[in-house]
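[step 3/7] fold_predict: job queued, chain A
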Amino acid sequence: GYFELPLLYGVYADATSDCFLGVLNYVLIGFVCAFLAPLGGSFEQAAHDLQRGWWQAACLQIEALLYYVDIPLRRLVSTPWPTFELLHKIPMFLEGSFPWAARHSEASCQQDDFEFAGILQTHLSTPVGTLEALTMQAAVSFVQHHQDPPSCWPGTASAFVLLAEAEVAHGIEVKLDDSAKESLDFVRPILKAWGDLDPWHLFYNLVFGAWPIWGLLAHQRRSEDQPVVQAPSRRPRSNRSRCENLSGDLGTSTGVDFAWPWTYDAEHLRRAACDLGARGVLFVSTWFGSESMHSYAMRARQISRHLRQDFDIAAHVCLTSCRSCCERWAICALLGQCARPAVVVHIKGLCECMVAEYPRHAGVAHVLDPIDAWVQSPPLYRGGASAYREVSAILAETSLAASDYRTHASVKACGWEVFHLPHHHTNVARKVAPCRDVVETIGVHSSRLDPELRAGIEGLLAARYPEVTFKHIDPNSMDVAAPWGDQQVEQMLAELLDFDISVAKPNCYERTATESREEQMRYRAWLCERHHGGQRLVHALAAGLPTVAWGAAHGFLDVLAPHSGWPTALSNEDVLEQLVLLLENRSLRCALAEAGPRLAEPYHISRTIERYTLLFAHLLRRLG
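[step 4/7] structure written:
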């Protein structure tokens, strides 16, 4: 077979891919093939460069597996991908064919340590499903002798894999002290060695070293006494079969009302999906590091995934710096691997090189999605504003933001359409917290919290409700090295469901380090109150939490507009008064808990995906 070296890997490899393990296996097989069938003669230097490229690609994929992808070991072992088998067999495949064979000396391991390596190799030759007691005892002893201070990192990692097999596949309780028990994870010893070794030596030892880490993981995979975890089967939806019975002009959108919450029927939606068909949609970020940020994941990765799954729309994501996205996409298109996107959605800021590459006259619609970067009107005061004239539409988080944009002189001058399309919530299964008789926890789920408000809540609880605890959970405290995905979303939902009452106040009122004067903070707060979305409140309402909402945030008022009498506050003192009412009135709490999911329903991701589909089809029809 013929393997094409992937072009879109970078610092985070393909850890942001929806099928990361598939990409990883592809790279590993391509890496092996590059060395088994090298070019010769006048192509020798080209072959050498290609081999080095595949080796670097394989190292980046292994780095992503160990460092950036937060997948539990048990889940990795149970997938149908033969990842560990491939990694284990690479030395066998490439025996004598790998040119960079100056193995690092593994100085952290002593000669006596390699006796345990021999025990592990013997274990790999035993029948699947068996584990000798002496082998397990040798692993326990090895960990105890090399845990503190840490030494022989590949041997310690291998011992942890064996002990994990003992617990997971054989149900044997591992007897370790508490500190070792907490680190029963084969990745941690490797990460501790990360800063001490040259990275290429580390990768060489991982792939070609004497310690059978990957073979042990493959052995555990075969020892699992349970069916392989398969992805949920989903019958692919074919645009051809869905669209072949349509009659009339697909371009008509008569009857779609884009005023919130958007009015349309199933026929409008079907026609929009058929109009898009295989025409691509690309979500691009502006700044490096966006792959680990919650807002980018919400507005890019989650939306693109559901566009593909629900409507067969060819949606892609590039979450890195603007320049890097342009370079990657240009090379990919040059080689015929990427088609020209029909729609480009710019997250938080305009990626001008992408606009230059795919201008409006080429039939590409550019959409600017500021999220929480509020000042996004076209900068007509500078020469570079010509790129902004290529934009077709801008998305607004609140109804007041949409009104501001529609009446803004520069927005009208550039001909942008404005759409009120706020953040969705990801409580896909519509899980709700129970309305308990006794309140146990008041919680705030926010990256920042007004310190005066926090002090007020804690003082109130200490003085009058000592049995109630207060929790402030910062979503940024999650493992931000791993890109935001399903696991982080589930963790956020679980944290919300642990609350009984919540408080929603935007981060508008604290002066930042760059604001030297009071009026600068007031200017930002004025924009925040008008343009800040209601996502934080929507997530709480979707979970059935009675929530005190800040009444000066228009994004919150948009969400609560259908409900009269919802508890809101315009000062920290108001917040405390509303909390007292909720703490002492169970009937009120339960009534709000019942109403919350209804208020959040228009923001469910399934509804948001439909709006994106209608929006993209509309913009492309406008372009002709």
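[step 5/7] annotate
The first strand starts at residue 281 and ends at 284.
The mean pLDDT is 79.
exit 0
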